[in-house]
Amino acid sequence: MRTPLPGVTRENFVREALAGVTLLAIAVPLNIGYAQIAGLAPVAGLYALVVPTIVYALLVSSRQVVASPDAAAAALVFASLTGLGIAGDDFASMAAAQAILCGVFLVAASVLRLGFLANFLSRPILVGFVSGLALEVLLSQVAKMLGIRLAADEEFFAQALDLALRIGETSWVSLAMSAAAVMLLLLGRRFVPSVPGALVVLVGATVLTVALRLDEAGVAVLGVIDGGPPEFAFPALGWAQWLALVPSALALAMITMAEGVLISRSYADTRGYPVSADRDLLAFGAANVAAGISMSFSMGSSTSRTAAMDQLGSRTQLPSLVLAGGSLILLLVGTELLAQIPSPVIGAVVAVAVIKLIGLGELRAFFRLSRYEFGIAVACLLGVLIIGPLGGLFLAFFLALVNLARRASNPEIDVLHASEDPQETPVVGVPTAGVAGVLVIRFAAPLFFANGAVLVDRVAEIVHAAGSGLHAVVIDAEGITDVDVTGAEALRGIERSLRGADITIAVSRLRPGLRERFAKFDLLDGVVEFDSNRAALSALTRGTV
Q: d(Cα 139, Cα 133) in Å, to the nearest integer?
């Protein structure tokens, strides 16, 4: 029977608990920033650290992956809700409802074992999508660091132009604080990575702001944060509002599926413990539902916090429970300590965290390795910036499907050529009459509507090139994993054409499951079957068939 916290022992309890304290120091300032990115009150970010974190930690199979809102998800929440024209008091309710829908989709995916759908979000799509969101977040944080407020309802390029035109409004005190914060964060990451740099910088900046009364000099501060435990409520929305949230919630669920399962498997393989993708999806789903009913917003896997815990030697979910407990204490008795945190420094913390999400290195690699996939990534990135996150995601998803169909419609079709000894294994050769007028043709793909005509044309070319000495053709079916109605019709056309030319048609290495499909489509009538290419060559060259 599975224990609630696998991996926790008497020997590692103290180490895991101390890792949780570090996680608390990292998560609190970041979640405040992410809540602001999402257009929500800072306390919504703290609510995500309590009940949703507990639910996730107790359900997940991964011993290390940390669940939390992140910059990309927060940006998608903000962009999707503002795109629907949501503002005012309804914004928080809609964000909570969006999290509930996201959670429902993830739970359904777990129950139906649909984790494989995450594979359709290819790496180029994820890189382009997250890079586009990261650029949007970075622009908003740069504006905050300069002390300039941008219109929230404008798209990326309009905001960038607005910022450039208003650069003269820069608050030099805010800029100086932000620049110092960025420098300290980067130096801390480089030389003392074990120290929670975000916490140190925010505490120092807050002390400086209070001591020098920088808020009176024009430096924006976080302001009063409502204290108290999370408030539980179910969003009171109409059916039309719920339906309007479905596309963005589905996008959040797909991204959580893709990233969460990938990260979970990666750490499990590295550290040597079992995980269950379906159980992880259930945990993410339940955590999102908990986030929605506790007035927070959508959650996913946190790559940066997971990596930080791994570096500290943590191999359990105990740090997440410590994080939840510490966040609850902060909400009950310590929110007043957060009121004087300077907003430009929060912007610097978030900017340093999010800049790692701009995948310039991966985009360069895509350009070098595959121009088409580079194009998919760039299309997704530009789509996010021009037509919004959902439009960019669906555009790139469509391009990925086109790429999949393009590849499947042009499969490898090889002519296997043998020596005069039919006992030797056939290898890729040239279209000649082969051994005593026998050719072996290998088709390496599922046979379906997109490539049936390609097979027909290629076989015709091969038969024509082989000349009049050809009397038998063997279709090596080992690489054929499936056949549909259109593919079956194409294969029947090949059979009729070969019989009309008095050429024997044979099939070899037919998988048992595929044989049932062939029989169902009447593709084996009058066709000779062989277990191997060697057996086919041996029989056909001797004329025993």
A: 10
